[in-house]
Amino acid sequence: MFTRRVAVVGTGYVGLTTGACLASLGHQVVCADIDTAKVERLRRGVVDIVEPGLSELVTEQVSAGRLSFVVGAAAGVSEAFPDDLDAEIVFLCLPTPMGVGGVADLRAVEAVVEETRELLAAGTVVVNKSTVPVGTAGRTAELLDRRDVSVVSNPEFLREGSAVHDFLNPDRIVVGCDTAEAAERVAALYARLGAPTVLTDAASAELMKYAANCFLAMKLSYVNAMAELCERVGADISDVTEGIGYDRRIGQAFLSPGPGWGGSCLPKDTHALLQVADAADFEFRLLRATIDTNTRQRQRIVDKVRAAVTGRRTGSLTRVRLGLLGLTFKAGTDDLRDSPALAIAALLRQAGADLVGYDPALVGEPGNPDRPVVDEVDGVPLVTDPMEAAQGAEALVVLTEWPVFRTLDWVAMAGAMKQPIVVDTRNLLDPATLRRAGLTGIGLGRREA
Ligand code: UGA
């Protein structure tokens, strides 16, 4: 099998997953990060992020001698491979946070290009995996200013919480480059996965990533709006989405209503694409409405809680104790970035409510420095047992779809509460179970809501 020497710069969830998975496909991989302590931990096989299967894969590939970690991009690209050889392909997996006015902040990418440009061997292919504005591959090539180095855009479509699975079972591989040879070299890295491969120009590859995430965001805003309409006309969103999902043009996936979409990708990418559109003098109204619908969803949840607890649409939440179940942006991750749960918590606090939160990913392990115990997030005190969140609460609000919430002892939870109300923003819990426990369950777009 043909293997390559691959450097991966940045060991966030994309970089580390890319590095470990490419190693598992037989390539020789060096992952570089500027965080010395993190590199030390990775060398010991300690993975900071919650990503199923990743720490096992890292340990396995390190022991197999195919994966190693170094401090700094410069150390990763030159002479880091056996026999002091240089990297043939360099992946940039760097943060591109939302900067001023929603424009992606490319400073990390620029700094790494600056640090490594003189060190790259002739013929190296630099691959951008980060989500970047259209035109970044061209700009990276300009910054590199090396005729003998190609720049390729190879966006990732990994979901947090199933990144390893998604990497190894991709729906497609996208490789964008103006040089066919470089594009084919990158595509060949993934050949063993047997996925459809789209070879295109760099700008189309860059836009494709935004197009995918924004389409997903639009799908969810549509579903959340439809759930609201269901409540008003007495229909049930689960039946509606099941029914439309059988249409293969729509599909069953990504149709669950919720507290709004969040995380480190969808919010950032929808804003960034809006900027791309603005800069191209294109008024992308559909995308703006997608974002506005999502922002509104948070207030809608607050209004639902208010109505449930006080019995009135304008009732006061001052000093009302509420237990929040789930604070991460979705289940299966400990990521709190742009979590709708935290945005809703902030609105509830503004409305005067006393909050207490529980999240299984934030419990930590006393005495384990790699899993510290967290006492509070964004001013929401955390407890280590869902029963404590229920204690004296006038309502419990389910904000993240952790499966473990389904099997809580709801009878005991009900017994601890001041008012037997559960607002289930994920339609996660079984309404009959709640009813049997004497609880009023309020979901989204449900007939009984
Ligand atoms: C998203 C995309 O799904 C990935 O394809 C992409 O690679 C990634 O962004 C990225 O750009 O790196 P991720 O942010 O991990 O992945 O999260 P998703 O699983 O897509 O969920 C996004 C948000 O939508 C979450 O807040 C989630 O709770 C919400 N959601 C998702 C729903 O409310 N309902 C659903 O049916 C699905």
From TrEMBL:
Record pathway: Nucleotide-sugar biosynthesis; UDP-alpha-D-glucuronate biosynthesis; UDP-alpha-D-glucuronate from UDP-alpha-D-glucose: step 1/1
InterPro entries: 6-PGluconate_DH-like_C_sf, NAD(P)-bd_dom_sf, UDP-Glc/GDP-Man, UDP-Glc/GDP-Man_DH_C, UDP-Glc/GDP-Man_DH_C_sf, UDP-Glc/GDP-Man_DH_dimer, UDP-Glc/GDP-Man_DH_N, UDPglc_DH_bac
The organism's place on the tree of life at top rank: Bacteria
Enzyme class: oxidoreductase
This protein's record includes keyword Electron transport: no
GO molecular function, one term: oxidoreductase activity
EC number per UniProt: 1.1.1.22
Catalytic activity, as annotated: UDP-alpha-D-glucose + 2 NAD(+) + H2O = UDP-alpha-D-glucuronate + 2 NADH + 3 H(+)
Domain UDP-glucose/GDP-mannose dehydrogenase C-terminal residues, every copy: 323-431
Alphabetic keyword roster: NAD, Oxidoreductase
Family label: Belongs to the UDP-glucose/GDP-mannose dehydrogenase family.
The protein, known as: UDP-glucose 6-dehydrogenase
